[in-house]
Amino acid sequence: MNLLNPYESYLCFHALWTHHRNLRLPRTELLAAQRTKFRRLVHFVRERSPYYRDVIAGRGLDPDPCEPTDFPVLTKRDVIRHFDDIVTDRRLTSDRVPEFLARSASPLALLDDRYHVLHTSGTSGTMGMYVFSKEAWIRATTQILRAVPFGLRRRVAFMAATQGILQA
């Protein structure tokens, strides 16, 4: 059984609190907060992702007034083709991630003791790989709890692969 360390516990509670708070914000405040977070992300990827640096420069975007619609849709094919240039940690490469998946025996194993790695099944003919920091993983997984109707007599179904390890 894997327990969260104190920092991960803090991140989990903070994410849950943020989700709870956001549910009660007026729409205009929620949209403003989302825009602020998005623009902070744009500044981050401009500095660390060659792919997004090129997109921002190629479209002549200014990160401060930009909107999500200013960016092209990112498809699974784009992620696969440009993986090495999209990621913001230069140590992550399209060669290292499948090697990690091939030798990993546990879905709880972390690449570099830092990253959760998921992959698509490849039924479309191409397997996609997606890498999440611990912080991003906690924020994403706590989103699931928003759908749980605490205190209500309602049934909720959720389906996900829990043993998604790539077998060579």
Summarize the model shown.
This protein has 168 residues and is mostly helical. It has helices at 6-23, 27-48, 50-58, 76-86, 96-103, 134-144, and strands spanning 115-119, 129-133.
Characterise the protein shown here:
- The protein has 168 residues and is mainly alpha-helical.
- The chain has one domain (6-147).
- Helices cover 47% and strands 6% of the residues.
- It has a two-stranded antiparallel ribbon with strand order 1-2.
- Helix 1 (6-23) packs across helix 6 and helix 2 crosses helix 3.
- The protein is globular and about 45 Å long.
- The chain starts with 5 loop residues before the first helix and ends in a 24-residue tail after the last helix.
What would the keywords be for this entry?
single chain; 168 residues; mainly alpha; two-stranded antiparallel ribbon; 6% strand; globular
Task: Spell out the blueprint of helices and strands.
Elements: H1 6-23, H2 27-48, H3 50-58, H4 76-86, H5 96-103, E1 115-119, E2 129-133, H6 134-144
Antiparallel strand pairs: 1-2
Count of separate structural domains = 1
Report how far apart the termini are.
27 Å
Rounded radius of gyration (Å): 18 Å
Based on the structure, what is the oligomeric state of the protein chains? single chain
The biggest beta sheet is recorded as:
2 strands, antiparallel
Widest sheet: strand ordering: 1-2
In percent, how helical is the residue content? 40-55%
Taken as a percent bin, the fraction of beta residues is: 5-15%
How would the global form be characterised? globular
What is the structural class? mainly alpha
Order of helices and strands: HHHHHEEH
Rounded mean pLDDT score: 86
Helical run tally: 6
Model regions low in confidence, pLDDT < 50 over at least 5 residues: none
Number of strands: 2
